[in-house]
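Q: Structure tokens for this one, please.
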Amino acid sequence: MKKTLITILLVLLVLLPFNFSKALQWDISTATYIDVFDVSGQGTSPTGIFFNSDGTKMYVCDAGGKEVNQYALSPAWDVSTASYTTRIDVTGNILRGVSFSSDGLKMYVLDQNSVYVREYTLSTAWLVSSASYSTFRDISGSTSAPLGLTFKTDGTRMYIADASGKQIDQYNLSTAWLVSSASYSTTISVTAKSNDPSGIYFKSDGTEMYITDTDDQNLYQYSLSSAWAVNTASYTRTLDTSAKANIEQDLFISSDGVNLFIINSGDQKVNQYEMEYVEPDSCTYGGSGNYTVQEGDNCYYGDDLYINGSLDIIASTTGAFNCNSVISFDDINMRVDNDPVTINQGPNCKLINRD
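A: Here is the predicted structure, written as tokens:
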């Protein structure tokens, strides 16, 4: 196999560690359909989905049965291995979403009919059959058709997918995880892309937002310039799920940003997608002079160069390139062609390659 050479001019006099990584998780444009699980045995109208923190338990709320069903997964995050374990009947007429506190001791159910978010306390973490009703928050002042529900990871903010206004509503909780302490804060219109926003989810750091739509079977991704503040969101990309989705209702993403789950009420199925990811390896460069990375070292034509997950050095053609300060881009390719490429490192710019 013909070798593609990259010549790297190192100016460091000490050993420095670097990571190789392919940072494509949390990016729906990389999503590939991989599996499915049928939940029709437990209900006819699944509308919400959630997982526990380690991916070994899945929760589905059903509008028809007015219940939250629990499933066990082994291995974790593999929906094809799900098996039904238990359930709880909940108060409400049209259930539209389910969420949990980070410790699994609180469960929240969105009731479209009453326009309430209902809170339950679990005596055993992540076990729905141990849940007891505790309180609620009336959200009818800002929406008449709430379809999706999620929370900030620390429980201080709540978000509602509002189909009536074609928007995402944000609430602040003065007491973390206590819905009765929620007060309306702000909103963002998603009408330019979404006719019926039905499910909502956030990246773990609050910088990305994801919205399902029951009308066009698309999943939309937005970037937030201020983490967890929906009014700073701007649209970035779309995933067309119509080949698999039939009235998509809600979504969930695994904690590493790799596994994407979308629940559909039309065919009562949970579809699983994988957002491409390569587990980082470690490597050490040191000394001075030239270092040559060969094709066998996993640096290929068209690859991006990453530093700790951020793309920091870019070569667009062959030749010599200088980098004197750290720069960041999301999707720019390094082109190697057949000739060596020399990258001259500056004091704030360290060069690595990724798988």
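A few notes: Residues 6-23+278-345 form one domain. The chain is about 0% helix and 50% strand.
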